[in-house]
Amino acid sequence: MERPHTEHRPRQAIALKVTAILLFTCMAAMIKGAVAEVPAGQAVFFRSFFAMPIIILWLWHRRELKEGLVPNSLKGHIWRGVIGTSAMILTFVGLGLIPLPEATAIGYATPMFTVILAAIFLGERVRFFRLSAVALGLIGVMVVMAPRLSLDTTAMASGASLGALCILGAAMLRGLVQIHVRRMVSTEHTAAIVFYFSLTAASLSLLSIPFGWVWPSSYALMLMIGAGLVGGVAQILVTSSYRFGAASMLAPFDYSSLIFAAVFGFFIFEEQLTLNMVIGAGLVVAGGILIILRERQLGMDSKKLRAATAHKGD
User: Fold this and answer.
1) What is the largest CA-CA distance in the chain?
2) Does the reported pTM lie above 0.70?
C-alpha cells in the first residue's frame, strides 16, 4: 500500500518539482548531444540502465524495496514498458533532429492525447470545456509544427519534419501510458511502476542492437551515463514532490521546462526560439492548464499517477 500523503509543504513541493524539471531538461540536453553520435535505442539503454541503481537505493532508503521489486501484474508492467520505451525511442530520435525548445513545446501535447484516449479506452465523458481545451492545445501544436509540415526542402533534407512527427508520436504514446497507468495504480505500488519501467526499457532497448549500436566516444558515453543518473535523481525528486503538495498544484510547473529548454538550447546548441514556437507553446500551455483545472474540479487529481508517469521521455 502507498504511504498516506499527510504533509502539506507547498514551498518544498514546488522546489522539488522545479528542480526535477530542470534535471529532466538537463537529461534531454545530454541525450540530444549523445544521439548525434549513437543510435536512439542505445541511448535508451544507458538512460534506463543507469537510472536503476539510483531508484533501488532510493527505495531501500524509504524501506519500499520489497514493494518496488514485487509486482502484482507483471503483464501490466510489460505493456507499460513496451509503450513507454517506444515513446522514449521516438523522443530521442526527435531530439537529434529538431531544436530542444521545439521538441519540448510539441511534447506538451501529451495531456491533450490523454483526454482523447481516456474517452476512447476508459469511456470518460469529455464535455465542451475539456474538448475546447484539447482543441486549443492541438492548434498550438500545429502552430509549432507548421514549418516542419511544409514541403520546405531545408526541413526535408535536415530530417526536421521527421523529428517533429517523432516527438508528436511520442506525446501520443505518453498519453497512452498515462491511460494504462491509471489502471495500474489501483493494484500496483508507485515504486514498482517506477522500477519496472526502467528495467523493461533497458531490456527492450537491447533488441535494437542489430540495428547498429556503435562504440561511443568517451564524451558520448559520459553523456549517456550522466543522462541515466540525472534522470534517476529527477524521478526521485518529482515523486517526492507529491508527498508535500497536491498534483493539481504542481502540474503547471511542468511548463517551466520550456524556459530551461530555451536556455540550454541557446547556450549549448545555439538554437533560437522562433515566433511559431512561442505562439504555439503559449496555446498548448493554455490548453494544458485548462485541462488541469478541469481535472481538479472533477476530482481526478492523482498523486500516484503523476509520480508513476513522470519519466520525461517514456
Assistant:
1) 56
2) yes
Contact 301, 246 (CB under 8 A): yes
Buried b (16+ CB within 10 A) or exposed e, 33-47: bbbebbbbbbbbbbb
Structural domain spans, the chain? 14-309
Nearest to 79 by CA among 185, 218, 197: 197
Angle between helices 190-205 and 40-49 (to 10 degrees): 140
Phi and psi torsions of 310, nearest 5°: -90, 55
205 grid coordinates = 532497448
Give the whole-angstrom CA distance, residue 252 versus residue 292: 8
Residues 234-251 have a mean pLDDT of 83
Determine the residue type at 132: S
Handedness of CA 171, 173, 179, 185 (dihedral sign): negative
In b/e form, how buried is each residue of 211-250, taking b as 16+ CB within 10 angstroms?
eeeeebeeebeebbbbbbbbbbbbbbbbbbbbbbbbbbbb
Distance CA 72, CA 186 (A): 11
pLDDT of residue 1: 44
CA nearest 26: which of 166, 231, 217?
A: 231
Q: Would you put residue 63 in left (φ > 0), alpha (ψ -120 to 50) or beta?
A: left
Looking at residue 210, the DSSP 8-state letter turns out to be G
pLDDT of residue 155: 55
- Copy the grid coordinates of residue 20: 526535477
Say if CB 213 and CB 39 are below 8 A apart. Answer: yes
